[in-house]
Amino acid sequence: MHVTHTEIEVRYAETDQMGVVHHATYLVWFELGRTRFIKELGFSYPKMEENGVLAPVTDINISYKKPFRYGDTATIKTWLDDYSGLRAIYGYEIYNEQEELCITGTSSHVLVNKETFKPLIMKKVLPDWHMAYMDAMNPSRQER
Amino acid sequence: MHVTHTEIEVRYAETDQMGVVHHATYLVWFELGRTRFIKELGFSYPKMEENGVLAPVTDINISYKKPFRYGDTATIKTWLDDYSGLRAIYGYEIYNEQEELCITGTSSHVLVNKETFKPLIMKKVLPDWHMAYMDAMNPSRQER
Amino acid sequence: MHVTHTEIEVRYAETDQMGVVHHATYLVWFELGRTRFIKELGFSYPKMEENGVLAPVTDINISYKKPFRYGDTATIKTWLDDYSGLRAIYGYEIYNEQEELCITGTSSHVLVNKETFKPLIMKKVLPDWHMAYMDAMNPSRQER
Amino acid sequence: MHVTHTEIEVRYAETDQMGVVHHATYLVWFELGRTRFIKELGFSYPKMEENGVLAPVTDINISYKKPFRYGDTATIKTWLDDYSGLRAIYGYEIYNEQEELCITGTSSHVLVNKETFKPLIMKKVLPDWHMAYMDAMNPSRQER
């Protein structure tokens, strides 16, 4: 399974008056992990949007175990957790410098047309990407 | 069951290049609903923090059914979904002006000490608030 | 001179670890004041964008005199400070509940085409809006 | 004069419905440049705050010449523009990958006590930092 590592330095603006990173920020960090994951597989999220395809989020689950603070560096692990041909689910784990697991989560995405927001079939609109995701779910196939 | 209604006008800065509200924004809207819910029950989240008690989020689940756009007005319904004495779970539904259900979610919270981040028992540190939440979960008791 | 009043409750997510509203947030509040100002004059910023016209910011000056905190309510006064036919400059003052002046600023805007980002002449693309802004700068003319 | 270079990849969440980075975001980027500048001079903004000293912004001027888009990488140049012993003014220029100057600005800061928000004299509370800033303004002195 391909797992992407993305390093992030906490931004001052990401903290709140609790003295820690505001909990909504981690959804933005997930997005950074996702962008990097897609890039490492050889695709480009910005180019996909330029071609009229969007991948909006349909569901997010997130658990907060330990907070991050300004001055900390975080490492986001990102992988493809499930892919059915229609829906892609990414998994995330965020670790601190002491390698403690601080945040876990998943995000589900579908493809839609940029103008109409109507659903699109990945296999049809992005066949190469579809193949790469099928392989990512069945790594043994790739190894044969 | 007490359900709070909070109205929000979409901010330009809340949109992203998809032309809709960025998905992390709704966690901030949940927070606005929660603040109002607490206020309607007669308590004050800002005052609680001044007294050294924080209520960090431990888990969030959110489903995105329909996006909001700049120019839209949203209504957030917020209620206490579960309260065990230790953990409070709030429920949220966000509706558009056509009364369509667009976003649903829950958030779980515990109480911790502001300085040490160690867990606190609501019954001990906020007994009135504890009673109000017990009543909110067992409305019949209140009616007797 | 027309001055719009916009009330805002500080959001928790707008605070930072200093315990006050993060300084970048006030640019978003200026934007809320501007949206309301335009609405009160009878126009719609969202509709303008749907018609292919954008009004990007070219310059902002902002002075921070007193911070806002979670639990505070702010009042943003917004007016048209200068309008040359090409460039519109809005003025802003943000007051707290004690009517102390906390934040002041201005923002300059031009009109551009949504697709090409090339400059547009307000008089040509939005003649009614142009007239209203000319009147706003020369209120005596209106009174005659 | 010491000039720090900070590279930033545009985040999806930083864009707005104009399809470009929202104008308030650049204040956050300035902050990233400032944090790095201070680090390169051998000091730590997070540690300063832990020691009870804050450096709030008192004024910002910013000019927007060319927008950034998702997929772009930005380089923020940051330097100490003026330092009087009381007030530090930082200068910023943000360049795109084509080395075009896109954003310019300055931010003014004073030191205050974390609890009281009362002004502090840098020379007294942070004498080493004061010396480094005096040197940064008079580089010839350092060279002698």
Which stretches of chain A of 5+ consecutive residues score pLDDT under 50?
Answer: none
Helix-and-strand structural type of chain A: alpha+beta
> Which sheet architecture does the biggest sheet of chain A show?
5 strands, antiparallel
Mean pLDDT of chain A: 94
Strand elements of chain A, count:
8
Fold-level CATH name of chain A: Thiol Ester Dehydrase, Chain A
CATH architecture of chain A: Roll
Work out the radius of gyration of chain A.
Answer: 16 Å
Read across the widest sheet of chain A, the strand sequence of neighbours is 1-4-5-6-3
Q: Could you estimate the helical fraction of the residues of chain A in percent?
A: 25-40%
Mass-distribution shape of chain A: globular
List the helices and strands and how they pair.
Four copies of one chain form a homotetramer.
Chain A: E1 4-9, H1 25-40, H2 45-50, E2 53-54, E3 57-64, E4 73-83, E5 88-95, E6 101-109, E7 111-113, E8 119-120, H3 122-125, H4 127-137, H5 139-143
Antiparallel strand pairs in A: 1-4, 2-7, 3-6, 4-5, 5-6, 7-8
Please provide a written account of the structure.
The structure is a homotetramer. Chain A is of the alpha+beta class and about 140 residues long. The first copy, chain A, has one domain: Hotdog Thioesterase (Thiol Ester Dehydrase, Chain A), CATH 3.10.129.10. Chain A has five helices and eight strands, in the order E-H-H-E-E-E-E-E-E-E-H-H-H. In chain A, the strands form two sheets. Chain A has a five-stranded antiparallel β-sheet with strand order 1-4-5-6-3. The longest helix of chain A has 16 residues. Chain A is globular, with a radius of gyration of 16 Å. The two termini of chain A are about 15 Å apart. Chains A and B meet through helix 1 and strand 3 of A and helix 1 and strand 3 of B.
